[in-house]
Write a structure and sequence with these properties.
It contains 6 helices and no strands. Helix 2 packs antiparallel against helix 6 and helix 5 runs antiparallel to helix 6. The chain is elongated, with a radius of gyration of 16 Å.
């Protein structure tokens, strides 16, 4: 397997790592507060983001060309942001404990990171348009 060292040093890599760390903190906070209802979405997003990270790290996106991976990544980021936003709002409205507040705050930070990731990935997608030099 070939490792993509350029991806490791890129902003996208740092963004994906930050997403996983913040989603993990939200997951731990929700789990520690005994609100098991809210732990599924952050855990799911940690796993999906890790899968995309490994996909780009090992250059598997160029070997598995059946799907358009940047579009899949940006769609995942949009859905992750929406799901986490819904979960965090529901968590804040339903129960007020320190763990739920902490999980919701980190969930809202994760929402911002997933929106930023979707924007970055959308900017990389050309949709068969000619790339124009920046001025």
């Amino acid at each position: 397997m070939e490792v993509n060292f350029l991806f490791v040093k890129s902003k996208r890599s740092a963004l994906k790592i930050a997403e996983m760390i913040i989603a993990f903190v939200a997951f731990v906070s929700f789990a520690a507060s005994s609100s098991g209802v809210f732990i599924a979405v952050p855990l799911m997003e940690i796993i999906i983001t890790l899968a995309f990270y490994i996909l780009y790290l090992l250059k598997l996106d160029s070997k598995m060309t059946l799907l358009f991976w940047p579009l899949m990544d940006s769609v995942n980021s949009v859905f992750a942001a929406l799901l986490l936003l819904i979960i965090c709002i529901a968590a804040v409205v339903s129960r007020i404990t320190a763990g739920v507040i902490t999980g919701s705050v980190f969930g809202f930070i994760a929402v911002a990171l997933y929106v930023a990731d979707a924007y970055v990935m959308y900017r990389l997608i050309t949709f068969n348009q000619r790339k124009t030099p920046s001025q």
